[in-house]
Amino acid sequence: MSEAVSTLKVSLWRGGSDGRFKTYTVPLKANQTVLDIVTWVQRHLDPTLSYRFACRVGMCGSCAMTVNGRPRWTCRTHVTKVIQNGMLEVAPLANMPVIKDLAADMRPFFEKWVAAHGTFAASKTRTDAIEPIKPDEPARRAADEAIECINCGACYAACDTVRWNPDYLGPAALNRAWSLVNDVRDSDRTSRLAAISAEGGCHNCHSHQSCQEHCPQSLNPTRSIAGLKRLSMQAFVRGEINA
Amino acid sequence: MSASRRTYRRNILWNAALIHRLSGIGLAIFLPLHFLVLGLAIEGAGRLNGFLRLTQMPAVEFAEAGLIFLLVVHFLGGLRLLAIENLPWFGGQKWIATAIAAVSGCAAFVFLVRVL
Ligand code: SF4
Ligand code: SF4
Ligand code: FES
C-alpha cells in the first residue's frame, strides 16, 4: 500500500433526493480511484454510507456515479485525473431516483431495457443445427460494435432527452435494441422495431452525442439510434409497423 | 439536486446542440419579421425606404451580422445532423462542429466588413 502523501476534501451526497452534500477529509494516495475514496470513507469514517459496486475492474457496470458533475465508472476513474480545484464531489447517477446516498435506483433504466425488447429471442431450438455466423458480415459488425455495454447507466445519466422526457427509452436500451435487430439469429425483429418506434422511442433522440461522449466502454449509442431511426422508417414505409 | 454544475455539458458537441437549438429559435423569431419587410416592399416604396434607412444604422447592421451567423450555423449544423442520421457513421464530429462555428463566424464577419 502506497503511503499517504496529502489529504483531499471530498463531498459525498448523503440521504435521499432531498439530501445534501457532506464533506470528508480523506488521505490522497497514488493510483487511487474514486471508488477507493468512497470505500475509505465507509470503512474509516461512516459505515452507514451506501453505494454500489461489485467487480472493481470495469466489467459489472454497478459503480457509476456523478463525479464532479459528470457520470463516470468510479472503479476505473483515477482521482488525480478528475479533481477540480482540489475538490472531489460525488453524487448518485442523475436521471434516476435516489435510493440512499450514492446508490441510484436503476429500476427505470432496466425497465426501459425490457420495454425496448432488450432480450434475445431465439429463432431456433437446441435440436437445430448451429447457425454459422460470419464475423465480418456487415450486420454482425454492427451488432458487435454495440454489444460491449456493461449497463452502467452513464449514458442515460448524461442524456438531456431523458432528463426532459422521463418516458424516453434512453441510449443504453436503444443501443441494445440495435445490437439485437442486427443479430440474424433473433426472431423478435418486427415487434422490437415497433417497440422502439413508439412514443418514447428512438425518434425522440436529438443526436446530442452526450451518451457517446460519456460511455466508459467507448460505445456510440448515437450511431446505434441513428441506425434504428432508419430501420424504423423503412419498416413503416413497408407497412410492417404502424405510426 | 446534485451535479448542480452539470459539467457533463461542457463539451463541444453539447454546445453545438445548444447553438443549433438557440439559432433555430432565433431564426423562427426573425423570419416572420423578414417576411413582414418583404410585405412592406410590396405595399409601397415609401415605407420600405424608411425601413431600409433604419437598416443602415450600425447597431442594426451588427444585428444583421448576428442573423447571418444564426442562419449559417443552423444550416450547416442541420446538415451535420442529417449526415449523422442518414449516412454511415464518420468520426471527427467535434472537429466538424468547431469548423461550422468558425465558418459561420467568418461569414458574419465578412458581411460586417462589407456593410460597415
Ligand atoms: S444522442 Fe440521443 S440518446 Fe444520446 S445523449 Fe443525445 S438524445 Fe440522448
Ligand atoms: S452504452 Fe456505455 S454508458 Fe451506456 S450503459 Fe452501456 S456501457 Fe454504460
Ligand atoms: S465496480 Fe464493476 S464496473 Fe465498477
UniProtKB/TrEMBL annotation, chain A:
Gene3D superfamilies: 3.10.20.30, Alpha-helical ferredoxin (1.10.1060.10)
Keywords tagged on the record: 2Fe-2S, 3Fe-4S, 4Fe-4S, Iron, Iron-sulfur, Metal-binding, Oxidoreductase
Named cofactor requirement(s): [2Fe-2S] cluster; [3Fe-4S] cluster; [4Fe-4S] cluster
Quaternary structure, from the entry: Part of an enzyme complex containing four subunits: a flavoprotein, an iron-sulfur, cytochrome b-556, and a hydrophobic anchor protein.
Database matches in PANTHER family: SUCCINATE DEHYDROGENASE [UBIQUINONE] IRON-SULFUR SUBUNIT, MITOCHONDRIAL, SUCCINATE DEHYDROGENASE IRON-SULFUR PROTEIN
Family classification: Belongs to the succinate dehydrogenase/fumarate reductase iron-sulfur protein family.
Name of this protein: Succinate dehydrogenase iron-sulfur subunit
Species the sequence originates in: Acidiphilium iwatense
UniProtKB/TrEMBL annotation, chain B:
Entry-linked InterPro entries: SQR/QFR_C/D (IPR034804), Succ_DH_cytb556 (IPR014314), SuccDH_FuR_B_TM-su (IPR000701)
UniProt keyword annotations, A-Z: Heme, Iron, Membrane, Metal-binding, Transmembrane, Transmembrane helix
Membrane-crossing residue ranges in chain numbering: 12-42, 62-83, 95-113
SUPFAM superfamilies tied to this protein: Fumarate reductase respiratory complex transmembrane subunits
Cofactor names: heme
Places the protein is found: Membrane
Domain of life of the source: Bacteria
A Pfam family: Sdh_cyt
Function: Membrane-anchoring subunit of succinate dehydrogenase (SDH).
Family membership: Belongs to the cytochrome b560 family.
Subunit structure: Part of an enzyme complex containing four subunits: a flavoprotein, an iron-sulfur protein, plus two membrane-anchoring proteins, SdhC and SdhD. The complex can form homotrimers.
Name this polypeptide is given: Succinate dehydrogenase cytochrome b556 subunit
Species: Acidiphilium iwatense
